[in-house]
Amino acid sequence: MRIGELATRAGVSVRALRYYEEQHLLTSERSPSGQRHYADSAVDQVRLIQQLYAAGLPSKSILALLPCVVDGEATPELLDRLSAERDRIDRQIGDLVSARGRLDTVITNATANLLTGEQCRPR
Fold it and tell me: What is the dihedral of CA 83, 86, 92, 95, to 10 degrees?
């Protein structure tokens, strides 16, 4: 598939796909006229790259992790890195859950104040 179709199917910009190629996270074949062509599996790979970026991994870490994720190839060092990234994400999830809990408390208190006629004013 061509770059525009991959961008549409994966829900990313063409610019993002070019960046992924520059970072060696994604590969394409070139037609005689120079157009990029991607395998159908590129859609899932782009979605994975997006998830890893959203989880806070930099492109260098994603590049190191992709062979394990895509091909199942893993060294003990890579498994340690994967475990460390998972632990970091778990901490991030805990922090987000805590922040959500605090927001829930603020919302509950503000709703109760509105019902009793009190107002929460910014400081």
Answer: -80
Q: pLDDT tens digits, residue range 56-89?
A: 888 988 998 887 776 777 778 878 888 888 898 9
**For domain 1-73, which architecture applies?**
Orthogonal Bundle (1.10)
What is d(CA 108, CA 73) in angstroms, rounded to the nearest whole number?
Answer: 49
Q: How confident is the model at residue 98 (pLDDT cuts 50, 70, 90)?
A: very high
pTM as predicted:
0.68
**Residue of 42, 2, 10 whose CA lies nearest to 25:** 42
**Residue ranges per domain, the chain?**
1-73, 74-123
Q: How many CB atoms lie within 10 A of CB 74?
A: 15
Q: What is the dihedral of CA 56, 76, 94, 57, to 10 degrees?
A: 0
